[in-house]
Amino acid sequence: MLKDSAVGSWFFDGHSSQNNLIHDAGQNPYLTIDLGAHAVAALLGNSYGANSNGFSVTYTRRLFSTFISGCASADSATEFPDATGTPLGVPQVGNSQIKKSAFVGFTGFSHPGSINNSWVYRIHREWLDEIDYDTPLSLAVAIANNNYPEVLNWGPRIIGYRPLKYNGDDSR
Amino acid sequence: MRRRSIIIVAAGFAMIALYITSRQRQKVSPEKPVSATAIQSKTGLVASYPPRSSNELGDTLIKAQDPLFLEQVMPKLNEFFSLLDGLSVNPLHGKLQPSSCDKIRIIHIPNGIICRLVIGDGWTATYIENSTFSGMMYFGQRGADDPIRAISHANTNTLHQLAQNAVSMSETEVWKIANRVADAFGIDQSEFEKPEMFEEGLFDYRLGIYTVRYRKKGSDPINQLNYTRDFSLKATSPTSAVLVSYSHLEATLR
Is-contact A124 A76, C-beta < 8 A? Predict the structure, then answer.
């Protein structure tokens, strides 16, 4: 589905690390499928990495918003923001030269279960569904953080444009 | 326009879990539709107010006549707008009336509430009350003319219109007003890195809206959640402005 150009936003709920999704051989040795950050970038027609001029990213499609609720997808060494179109080294707030996008994830270990699910649900509810309030992403996350403060221990992080406002008809 | 969608990987598991969770929350939630609408006032008179209801997340939906809103939230909203009046940066005309407040929703959080509401056609506010703080959590614009919406969606038609009506203000004048606003809202600058100020805009469109934001001292500058305080001033002349956005987004562990 990521290859479909109609897709502008992506929510992944499952195991993750800095540069890989799904695989979790330690706890679930039967799960041996990987979805690496480079593979995600390739599905979007993007590429990133070091070259002779340093680090570079090349985008065909930048996702409007990306949300990965597993572990460490937003830590300092993560590759997913670069892969999906919210490059770590490019400030968006106060930068008039870049179309806006955002990445939400955790810097540390998140735990599956009702707290995680409820936190995710609250963010989506406030940001996407309660359209009357026209909610910035940062406010939706802050409301969820106040609603489920246990999540603060997992290191929630927003990268990119924090006031981003969702619009289901114009989300990429 | 083509309908666009969110991919939900492992959607089956996630959605089942979410619905189970929401149902469990509903079962334990004290908030159910309330049919009794009478309260005993201090004078012994019985007053009535519109019935409350709740959504599947356990949020309580109330009307502006509800005592919870009138007695607990409204005074704090008035306090906020009085502060703006005192600074001559209030974007609303006249005193805020309960009749201007709609879509009032109470989110129950540990040790408190968050109250979300819509003010008139063009504004939205979020109030928070917990064990450490009570006051405005967010105030900002909503609707088609909202500049942040226009920037978020790179809506060049709206950006063009907004830019045509924009008034420019010098950085010195912005800081004069911004520092008064920061002081009035009790922003302790010793707790933050040096504040950043920039004009809102996208591509070649400059909107005459100046945002000042504060990042917690020593915190990660990439994590946008660390910018816990910010506000935006829209210039109405080269030396005057109104406040069009305000955020106080700190969350604390129980």
Answer: no
Provide the β-strand partners of residue A160.
A102
Q: How far apart are CA A97 and CA A56, in angstroms?
A: 17
Contacts of B103 in chain A (CB under 8 A): 132-133
How far is A47 from A40, CA to CA, in rounded Å? 9
Residue B186 — left, alpha, or beta (φ > 0 → left; ψ -120 to 50 → alpha)? left
Inspect the interface and report whether the beta carbons of B225 and A117 lie closer than 8 Å: no
Q: Is A14 on the interface with B (CB under 8 A)?
A: yes
Is pLDDT of B22 > 50?
no
Cβ atoms of residues B122 and B245 within 8 Å: no
Read off the pLDDT band of B26 (50, 70, 90): very low
B84 SS3 class: helix
For the stretch A92-136, pLDDT in tens is: 999 999 999 999 999 999 988 899 999 999 999 999 999 999 999
Does the CB of B249 have a partner CB in chain A at under 8 Å? yes
- Nearest-Cα residue of chain B relative to residue A154: B253
Check: CB of residue B113 under 8 Å from CB of residue B211.
no
Whole-angstrom Cα distance, residue B137 to residue B230?
Answer: 11
What pLDDT digit, counting tens, does each position of A137-162 carry?
999 999 999 999 999 999 999 999 99
Contact check, Cβ <8 Å, B142/A9: no
Instruction: Give the pairing type, strands A102-106 and A65-68.
Output: parallel
Q: Which residues pair with A143 in a beta bridge?
A: none
Task: Give the model's pLDDT for residue B11.
Answer: 42
Distance from CA of A139 to the nearest CA of B (A): 7
* Residue B212 CA from chain centroid, whole number: 16
What angle do helix axes A114-124 and A137-147 make, rounded to 10 degrees?
Answer: 150
Distance from CA of B187 to the nearest CA of A (A): 18
